[in-house]
Amino acid sequence: MHYPLFRPLAAGAAACALLAGCAMRAPAPAQPQLSTRTVPLIEVDGLRFRDLNRNGKLDAYEDWRLPARVRAASLVAAMRLEEKAGLMMHGNLAMRADGSQPDLAAMRPLLLERHVSTFVSRQQGDAGQLAAVHNRLQELAEQSRFAIPVSLSTDPRNHFQYTVGQTVAGGGFSQWPEPLGLAAIGDPALTRRFADIVRQEYLATGFTQSLSPQADLATEPRWPRVFSTFGEDAARARRQVQAWVEGLQDGDRGLHPGSVVAVVKHWAGYGAAKDGWDSHNPWGRFMSFPGPNSADHFAYHLLPFDGAFAAKVASVMPTYSEPDGRVELDGVVLDPVGGGYSHALLTELLRGKKGFDGVVLSDWAITNDCAGPCLHGAPEGVTPLAFFPQFGTPWGVEQLGKRARFVKGVNAGLDQFGGTEEASYLVEAVRAGELPVARIDASATRILLQKFQQGLFENPYVDEARALATVGKPAFRAEGLEAQRRSLVLLQNKGGLLPLTAAGTNAGRKVWLHGVDAAVAARYGFTPVADPAQAELAIVRAATPFEVLHPRHIFGLLAHEGSLAFVDGNPDYEAIKRASSHVPTIVTVNLERAAILTNVVDKAGAVLANFGVSDEALFDVLTGKARPEGRLPVELPSSMAAAARQRPDLPHDSENPLFPFGFGLSY
Q1: C-alpha closest to that of 222 among 666, 595, 659, 618
Q2: Contact 280, 312 (CB under 8 A)
Q3: How far is it, in rounded angstroms, from Cα 254 to Cα 265?
Q4: CA of 452: how far to CAs of 206, 311, 320, 455, in Å?
Q5: How far apart are CA 219 and CA 204, in angstroms?
Q6: How far apart are CA 27 and CA 37, in angstroms?
Q7: Among the four 305, 417, 588, 592, which has the fewest Cβ within 10 Å?
Q8: Confidence of residue 160 (pLDDT cuts 50, 70, 90)
């Protein structure tokens, strides 16, 4: 039933009659906080409401006493087709040419003419600047016909790794280990606390959606996205995913004021990356489940998502990847297309088998072509980043025109398209009889429902001073620092080299450093020297090795592909060799992928894996002020030959791994 939108609500018994019975109305909550710039307030029954459409009456969608579903259905019933189609776009926040600030002039037509009301923001800057810009966007949105508030999403901001289109540089946000490091700690309560802090920092600045967590399994050690997963074990990942969603959404009861929408990704099988390539790229478009037990292996990759469903996750993002060959599960055969176009994945498995009824948001740019520089690489001498707007991932539907891609995505089960504002294609499809209006209404209702549940129609603005006081406040930073310490995995400690205090005081102890801030070492009592031959000890930071194998492609340039092995000529490996020929050497490796340490452990006295760690947290552990507690969330192969022989879809299958899953020493 749709309640008439333009109907004033009377008081008392008359209001009950208009609403088809008082039982339809949820118990009246207390007056919520209202915030507004240009929208007037009206008073009914001694309560205040925002007159969003400025008609001087209280309409059903404006009445915060009504259930969110009633309000959403009422608003959808009054919207034009163009307005509903606009809701189904999850656009990109328009930025100035220099990339410094959002371009509010360019945002005006997106909000008021194309009717887009959800955007991803990759803007950097301090919390006050973010909050101020987000408030300006909400003020601009008030000028639309129904004053629908803006929802702002972001990729993760609280970690160390930064890749355009996948994460955002942290700025002033509290800094924590990568998700792989949280998995190394293995404490769901800590992960929930982390996500709760993220929730508070996001809401303070006006972010209401988080494009996380990543529930994919890291069963392929060469895959560039290993660092942002919870590792290769489905049971551990399931617990971590559930905790993350509960932290972001403020519990397991679904969205409400105070929740940030969690968008769990990437449904499903993304981590089973054929040959270790990533499906952002045309050469890495396939997920691979080879062999007679492919159904069981695919089912294993679905298990972490069950944690998200248990926490009533609000949104799901499908994978870019398409299956390499036949994959069947419970009688459902996956379509030979990317996940955003797969009816089997989205309707039969996600909605049907799993019962998910939230918003399904596509990954970015799936309706765009991948041709020219996207397919063949940028011309010599031109950075591929110049062609970022032309990036596309239409895997399996390259032969379809753009309108047909939108239609196929909606019919597969998508509610919202990431990275585009081209709502006109949906409007054309409906008018051509290719999509029913009812299907558009269903998606529009799901999208609006979340805005109502979060209380954005009442209070879309944020306090800029509070944002500055909340984001990165000392207590949050301290908790992040402690998690960094706990996440370190001690892989080797020859002769009890660590903790360094075991050998006596460090005052004046000469140390040679590579990749470590000398000022931090000095604060811990060490004397940095320029030559390892003059030192008593060396400390080397190393990155997991990688190769730039596709430098003319955007994500070939940005993502870390190829070999995991330390070889001559690698700057970090040269530093390890140089130091270890003179003094006992401590090596810490940023384990963004499953590094091969075979020719590191024979040179280093102590080896620690880190997942993003500050120098301060590192020295706290090296000097015994804290202890490493982490256990490997992925196994580390003994050679590249062994890594290449691993199945892309199976965990714990490396031949004689140098360090097995779950390994970790202590002192």
Answers
A1: 595
A2: no
A3: 18
A4: 16, 19, 30, 5
A5: 36
A6: 29
A7: 592
A8: confident
d(CA 447, CA 151): 10
SS3 state at 45: coil
Amino acid, single-letter form, for residue 314: A
- CA dihedral 190→196→200→205, nearest 10 degrees, is 100
From the list 406, 376, 404, 373, the residue with the least C-alpha distance to 387 is: 373
pLDDT at 96: 85
Supply 41's token pair. Answer: 């307030």
Residue in the structure block whose two tokens are 């997106």: 110
pLDDT 10s digits, 524-552: 999 999 999 999 999 999 999 999 999 99
pLDDT of amino acid 164:
55
Using alpha carbons, list the distances in angstroms from residue 526 to 490, 500, 503, 505, 634: 22, 11, 13, 10, 33
117 pLDDT tier (thresholds 50, 70, 90): very high
Show the CA angle centred on residue 290, arms to residues 374 and 661, nearest 5°: 90
* Given the residues 59, 233, 335, 615, the one annotated as active site: 233
Give per-residue pLDDT as tens, 219-277: 999 999 999 999 999 999 999 999 999 999 999 999 999 999 999 999 999 999 999 99
User: What SS3 string covers 194-224?
Assistant: HHHHHHHHHHHHCCCEECCCECCCCCCCCCC
Set 363, 415, 572, 620: catalytic member: 363
Q: Compute the C-alpha angle 569/574/576, nearest 5°.
A: 150
Task: State the pLDDT at residue 123.
Answer: 87
What Rg value do the Cα atoms of the chain yield, rounded? 26
- The dihedral of CA 532, 537, 543, 545: what is its sign? positive
Count of CB atoms within 10 A of residue 475's CB?
9
- Could you tell me which residues come within 8 angstroms of residue 380 by beta carbon, excluding any fewer than 6 positions away? 552
Residue 166: the pLDDT is: 54
Helix (H) or strand (E) segment spanning residue 575: helix 571-580
Which helix (H) or strand (E) segment is 489 a member of? Answer: strand 489-493
- Report how far apart, in Å, the C-alpha atoms of 456 and of each of 36, 68, 207, 413, 588 are: 11, 11, 11, 26, 45
Contact between 588 and 575 under an 8 Å Cβ cutoff? The reply is no
Does residue 69 contact residue 447 with C-beta atoms inside 8 Å?
no
**CA 48, 52, 53, 59 torsion-angle sign:** negative
DSSP 8-state class, residue 94: P
Q: Is 233 a catalytic residue?
A: yes
Distance CA 546, CA 596 (A): 11
How many C-alpha atoms does 428 have within 13 Å on its Cβ side? 11
Q: How large is the average pLDDT for residues 150-166?
A: 82
The residue among 261, 303, 138 whose CA lies nearest residue 649 is 303
Residues 6+ away with beta carbon under 8 Å from 30: none
Nearest residue to 170 via CA among 131, 133, 202, 218: 202
| Mean pLDDT value of segment 441-468 | 98
Question: Treating both helix axes as pointing N-terminal to C-terminal, what angle do 234-248 and 188-205 enclose, rounded to 10 degrees?
Answer: 30
Task: Name every residue whose Cβ is closer than 8 Å to that of residue 23 and which is 6 or more positions away in sequence.
Answer: none
The Cα-based distances of 41 to 55, 56, 363, 441 in angstroms read: 11, 9, 38, 28
- Lookup result for tokens 């805005």: 451
Q: Is 363 a catalytic residue?
A: yes
